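Sequence in, structure out. Go.
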Amino acid sequence: MGIPVEGDNIQIHSYKHNGHIHRIWDETKILKATKHLVIGANDRTLVTEADGRTWITREPAICYFHTDIWFNIIAMIREDGVYYYCNLGSPYVYDQEALKYIDYDLDVKVYPDMTFTLLDEDEYEYHRKQMGYPDVIDHILKRNVDKLVRWIRTRKGPFSPDFIDTWYDRYLMYR
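Output:
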């Protein structure tokens, strides 16, 4: 697995368990990249859905991906605070074409006051049966929901007080 180069723009590809593309973010600036971690940022980037529909993101976002955890975190910087959208999914891989991961439907939305909501449990159950998620994946994902909630409650990683400001300032240096 390769490592993206800091300062480069890459695509992010989200897949479903069956191998079909789910969503593509056209351009994300790499702010930090190691063999285990990628932090990127984008603003008003083109997003293409599996059915070909496209849309443009509305605000700057800091993206956090890791090779050892089964979730990624998108921090959207809005006028009234930072909102986090956390996707339960496989650890990422990077192969020179794009940063890639499997989206497993479950999401956690975190509000600026750090309250949160677990989303899409019905979609997860539907796809788990339809695509035959193995029990081991189900257990891993449920453990990672618990881990993500601990991160939120203890303000770990991207939820820590200065994380977003630090990385957004770095992103602004590239603009």
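Check: Helices lie at 121-131, 135-154, 163-174. The longest helix spans residues 135-154.
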